[in-house]
Amino acid sequence: MNDMSRMERREILRVKRDALMQDHRDLDEAIAALEEKGTADPFTIRRLKKQKLALKDRISALEDQMTPDIIA
């Protein structure tokens, strides 16, 4: 893979990661708002927390793809 396509791929991964990070922050704020209200269904909060965790896993996977392999 040439340097240009590697840079393009890294940029695409960065944009995807940034979008997922924004979704993660949005979910965090939504969960906090629901918990602050105290009227939220516990199953809804649990579902949102699972979605947030799944986003965190996807973010980590993208960051792993963005980091070059280094032979120790």
Automatic annotation (TrEMBL):
Superkingdom assignment: Bacteria
Pfam hit, one: DUF465
Coiled coil: 17-65
Assigned keywords, A-Z: Coiled coil
Protein name (Swiss-Prot/TrEMBL): DUF465 domain-containing protein
Organism the protein comes from: Rubricella aquisinus
Lineage: Bacteria, Pseudomonadati, Pseudomonadota, Alphaproteobacteria, Rhodobacterales
